[in-house]
Amino acid sequence: MEEGKDPATANRSGRFITWRFLQYLLLFLVLGLGISIISMNTLRYLGPQNQNTITPLHRSNSIIWSTEPSGLESWISPPKNLLHNMIDAELLWRASFVPKIKTYPYRRVPKIAFMFLTKGPLPLAPLWERFFKGNEKLFSIYIHSLPSYVADFPQASPFYKRQIPSQVAEWGMMSMCDAERRLLANALLDLSNEWFILLSESCIPVQNFSTVYRYISQSRHSFMGSFDEDGPYGRGRYNPYMAPEVNLTEWRKGSQWFEVNRELAVAIIRDSKYYPKFKRFCRPACYVDEHYFPTMLSIHYPDLMANRTLTWVDWSRGGAHPATFGQYDITKEFLKKILKSNCTYNDHTTTQCFLFARKFSHSSLEPLLALAAPVLGIH
Fold first, then answer.
1. pLDDT-based confidence at 14, cuts 50/70/90?
2. 363 CB-near residues (< 8 Å, 6+ apart)
3. Sheet holding 311-312, edge to edge
4. Alpha helices, DSSP H only, in 158-221?
5. Contacts 24+ apart (CB under 8 A), 165-169
6. Where located (predicted)?
7. Which of 21, 122, 172, 258 has its CA 20 to 30 A from that of 302?
8. Is the pLDDT of residue 365 over 90?
9. Confidence (pLDDT) at 89
10. Overall average pLDDT of the 27-47 stretch
11. Alpha-carbon gap, residue 131 to 356, rounded angstroms
């Protein structure tokens, strides 16, 4: 004992220090137990039985927790942003997923995917906007343009933010088919899309939306031209190096502008057998966009093909491109001529053959809008 210090005071001081230490220790234990209980309850609340699952991501020897949707909605919801960062190989692989169970476990409303292959603006967009109005749950829109083009559609337009990641497409080259496969793959990411229509910026609808939807949804066939044409523009474009994958008797020609169902769309984007042959051996004056899809599909799916297109064009003027129609070409008589034709639909003869037409210039817009309601039924 130090000299001059009271023994009783020293004993009280020691007991006080011991009691204070016990108080701190008890408080620490209580806080630790409380934190543990709260953590366990939080994990239980956010566990697998809840809509979101907490998944640990390991980075640099540390754990970062993130939430991932685990319900059916995460699989069936279409992408909110079409401008993804997938390269083509990743996109085609992802889009090729096909459900093995054909019965959908939710109420699925089949939609038509309208795919616009264009260099830049859509000068006939006002006519299309009138065509789409009121049918928002029955269609999707996808635009493949030059990569440098940035669309400025207003938010109220169905074309608003519908551009997909694009690359340059050259006429007559495989890059054109690449663009078409890119459109199909992006559209396939939406499981509600059942039918896929390829259009250009010079295409117009020549029937109202209800007629188009009924015509396509009730058809037993997809509409892609596929025929065996003799002469320099058909069999004359065949390269013997295409064999054995494609023989001369299997060589087909058809219109670039098509409509296919989901089964054929998946077949197109997952093909790796015919693609290399067409890319290597079908170059101008063999125009690959007129032969690749018609030939491949006619070999494997002949019973699903109507062997005709739904898009009217006029080749009567001759040349490498069909006729283009402007302001002074648009009359009631002209449009009625497009509407009345002869073809086969579901194995029966009909006069209703075309749902779309091309090529129309920007100057044709005003007279088309004036005649849309009385002639085409587009209000």
1. low
2. 326, 327
3. 204-205, 356-357, 311-312
4. 174-188, 209-217
5. 165/82, 165/83, 165/84, 165/85, 165/86, 169/117, 169/144
6. Membrane
7. 172
8. yes
9. 96
10. 58
11. 12
Contact 224, 257 (CB under 8 A): no
Rounded CA gap, 257 and 326, in Å?
21
The reply to whether omega before 56 is within 30° of 0 (cis) is no
Beta-strand pair 193-200/259-261 = antiparallel
> How far lies 114's CA from each of 248, 277, 311, 368, in Å?
33, 29, 13, 20
CA–CA distance, 344 with 352 (Å, rounded to integer): 9
Q: What is the pLDDT of residues 102-137, one digit of tens each?
A: 899 999 999 999 999 999 999 999 999 999 999 999
230 vs 225: CA distance, rounded Å: 15
Average of per-residue pLDDT across 26-34: 66
- Residue 186 and residue 95 in contact, taking contact as beta carbons nearer than 8 Å: yes
Q: Tell me the mean pLDDT in the region 254-263.
A: 96
Checking DSSP bridges between strand 62-69 and strand 52-59, what pairing results, if any? antiparallel
Closest to 329 in 3D by CA, of 314, 319, 344: 314
Q: Which residue has the tokens 């002639």?
A: 375
In whole angstroms, give the CA distance from residue 338 to residue 318: 19
**pLDDT at residue 360 greater than cutoff 70:** yes
Exposure string over 113-138, b if 16+ CB within 10 A, otherwise e: bbbbbbeeebbbbebbbbbbeebeeb
Burial of 343: CB neighbours in 10 Å, binned 0-12, 13-18, 19+: middle
Only one residue has tokens 């070999």, namely: 299
Segment 196-231, tens digit of pLDDT: 999 999 999 999 999 999 999 999 999 999 999 999
Q: What is the pTM for the complete model shown?
A: 0.82
Beta-strand relationship, 204-205 and 356-357: antiparallel
Given a cut of 90, is residue 377 above it in pLDDT?
yes
Q: How far apart are CA 252 and CA 224, in angstroms?
A: 11
